Amino acid sequence: MDPGMNQLLKWSIENSENPHNDLTATTDPKAERPSGHGLNEEAIRSLMGGPSDADLMKSSMAAIQSPDISLDNKLVAFDNFEQLIETVDNANNLENLALWTPLVAELSSAEAGIRRMAAWCIGTAVQNNVKTQERALAVNALPLLVQLALEDPDDQVRRKATYALSSEIRNYPPALKVMMHHLPEELRPGGVVNAADMDDVDKVMDGIKQASAKVTK
After folding, report:
1. I need a surface site. Which of 33, 89, 122, 126 has the fewest CB within 10 A?
2. pLDDT, tens digit, 9 for 90 and up, residues 170-193
């Protein structure tokens, strides 16, 4: 069942269990009708017949991938997509909707703006979220992100790729290990790097940022 409809059903049941508590049944003319408190935006959209967040995510990715959509409109779709996955539930739903593979594929786009948005979305999705960090690792996003961070000719792409790497490795040792493997030897600090130690992570990321800043177009 659609998540929005599921919450709508739950809300409806909860608010029909105690009909005698309905303020509208009192004789007090000032009594207020119960509000929609407890319903999120997705549930309200379902009630009104609008698309769910899942529908919007899928349609955004379809627009991004379509050869018939202009670059400007693709970037608008990507911006909408990024805003949708700012919520943990939507970020986690990327796997269920089979959107991780097409998202990572856009890191290899010929258009710098598309590469930038793809990296940005990955960084947003994996931030403080072990479930999505696992998925980004599983779909091999890290080698591409390292390459973009250190070699892409576009400064904004490098910045967003660096952001995505930083979000992916924090508190997630498997991703840190893979990233370290793909970094040039001169960017690998000596000794053990602890993914849970933010000072350790910051030192590694500072090295990547410095190397990124030296890239010429």
Report:
1. 33
2. 999 999 999 999 999 999 988 899
